[in-house]
Structure formats: structure tokens, C-alpha cells
Amino acid sequence: MADAMKYYGSDKPDTRFEMKFVEITELKGTTFPVFNDAEVVVGICAKGCASYTRKQLDELTEFVRKPQIGAKGLIYVRCENAGYKSSVDKFYDQAALAQWAQKFDAKDGDLLLILSGVKEKTQKALGELGYSWDHNSV
To answer: 114 forms bridges with which residues in the sheet?
Structure first.
């Protein structure tokens, strides 16, 4: 059960889509205020989704901010041939974002979706996002 929660945010995960959580707490640095007091920084890699529009990313953010999900926001990183584009560009340089991408085993064209906060709550919120993503309801 501990591994299921750690990697999927659920004790009954749907593993068909292999959207395992990747924890990057040790790479959070100290420059981004949202990460400063976070117990955990964790995310998923959405393969081939770097082309998501700003509107689509805003919809994902609104989804995780719903009261029943409970996240305060969503960080994204687009992995592209020319480098990385993220919602936290003013806090993290290309080298830091490259470290994140490496940890996620992200390739060109992938999209990283990252949450932070209290461990259990954050894992559950990311699990809801992953489940909804897998079932095309986001």
C-alpha cells in the first residue's frame, strides 16, 4: 500500500497508463516561495503533451484547485527541443529544469505536471489528476 500511495496517490491505482509519480523534493531549491515550506514536491510526466495550450494548462490548474481535489496550484514544464518552458521560469533556470526533466525521464515533447505541499494531501491530489488524465475527464 505504501508504494501504491507513493507512486500513484491511491491504494487502488489504475496502472495501465504508467503515470507514476516522481518526487523532486530534493531538487526544489529555495528560490520559489511555494516550494519553500512544502513537505513534498511531486509530479507526473505526460508523454507527448508539451503542445498543450495555455487554455488547456489553465483547465488542468482549475481542476486541481477544485475544493474536492484541494491543491493550491499546478506547476508545468514543457520539454521542447529548444529547452524548457515553465510556469516557474523566473525562479528556475534551464539547468535546474533540465535536472527535473532528467529525474522524470522526460523527452522532447513531454509535459511535467508538478504539485507541492503536505505529503498525503499532495499525493492524493496528484492521484486525482493522474486518474482523470488517464480517463480523459480533465
So the answer is: 43, 75
* CA–CA gap between residue 21 and residue 90 (Å, rounded): 25
Closest CA to 38 of 18, 54, 22, 23: 23
- Rounded to the nearest 10°, the torsion over CA 6, 60, 108, 97 is -70
Residue 89 scores a pLDDT above 50: yes
Predicted pLDDT at 80: 95
Taking only the tens place, the pLDDT of each residue in 47-86 is 999 999 999 999 999 999 999 999 999 999 999 999 999 9
Q: How far is the C-alpha of 126 from the C-alpha of 134, rounded, in Å?
A: 12
Element of type H or E holding 136: none
Rounded to a whole number, what is the largest CA-CA distance in the chain? 40
Rg, C-alpha atoms of the chain: 14
Of 123, 117, 90, 104, which Cα lies nearest the Cα of 34?
A: 117
Query: What pTM, to 2 d.p., does this model score?
Result: 0.85
